[in-house]
Amino acid sequence: MNTINKFESRAQLDSTLANQVAEILESAVKAKGKASIAVSGGSTPKGFFAALSNMDLPWKQITVTLADERWVDINDDASNTKLVHEHLLQNKAVDANFFHIKQGDELTSEVLADLNLAAGTTVLPFDVLILGMGEDGHTASLFPCSNEIHAALSRDAAPLLKVVPQTAPHQRITFSYAYLAQSKNTFLHICGESKQTVLNQALSDSDVTHMPIRAFLQHESLMTQVFWAE
């Protein structure tokens, strides 16, 4: 299931999304003493990150992580970790915790096992999940072109998986669909006419391996809130 929210400007979208996410995180901290949010990379969320970073929240009780990451050095311009530290973990959000899903030089089975164990005790299930969407309908690093797509979409998948896309650079680590879908609040943040076109395509068919974002948009009980602006 999904609801589509359209905004006149990206600034309006960023402000509205930041306020809504802030309310969820604050409520979660009040209810259980902690909260977690998984975000996505790219240029689209920068304005949202800036808006959220200025919110008065109990940041010391909030853990931020990534829905997926490229297995590159954290100082590399392709690093989502670098993006989050430069644009979200600033201002009032500087006190937030960050759960690294990229740890070490090589993504070995041992590293993956340790990360899966840590994720289960640190951030899962997410209180908030912010997804993006590629032109091919991928989300997180659930790439339709990858050999791992069926495993990544499986309900029996581990929390974190190694993915090697065939049409995009870099080895990836990603949370699997099974664990992303457990988020208590899921948002798809997209901007521009081209993403509107991709969204329409995603809503027009049900083949999730061809466009993995469909697994969120067309789930019978999972509600995905789409936030779109030109």
Automatic annotation (TrEMBL):
Q: What is its EC number?
A: 3.1.1.31
Presence of keyword ATP-binding: no
Entry's SUPFAM superfamilies?
NagB/RpiA/CoA transferase-like
Report keywords, A-Z: Hydrolase
The chain positions of domain Glucosamine/galactosamine-6-phosphate isomerase read 9-220
* Biological processes per GO annotation: carbohydrate metabolic process; pentose-phosphate shunt
Gene3D superfamilies according to UniProt: 3.40.50.1360
Which superkingdom, per the lineage?
Bacteria
Pathway assignment reads: Carbohydrate degradation; pentose phosphate pathway; D-ribulose 5-phosphate from D-glucose 6-phosphate (oxidative stage): step 2/3
| Gene Ontology MF annotations | 6-phosphogluconolactonase activity
Q: Which InterPro entries match?
A: 6-phosphogluconolactonase_DevB, 6PGL, Glc/Gal-6P_isomerase, NagB/RpiA_transferase-like
Q: Pfam families attached here? A: Glucosamine_iso
UniProt entry tagged with the keyword Hydrolase:
yes
Q: Which reaction does it catalyse?
A: 6-phospho-D-glucono-1,5-lactone + H2O = 6-phospho-D-gluconate + H(+)
Q: Which PANTHER family does the annotation name?
A: 6-PHOSPHOGLUCONOLACTONASE
* Job description of the protein: Hydrolysis of 6-phosphogluconolactone to 6-phosphogluconate.
Family, similarity comment: Belongs to the glucosamine/galactosamine-6-phosphate isomerase family. 6-phosphogluconolactonase subfamily.
| Protein name per the record | 6-phosphogluconolactonase
Q: State the organism of origin.
A: Thalassotalea euphylliae
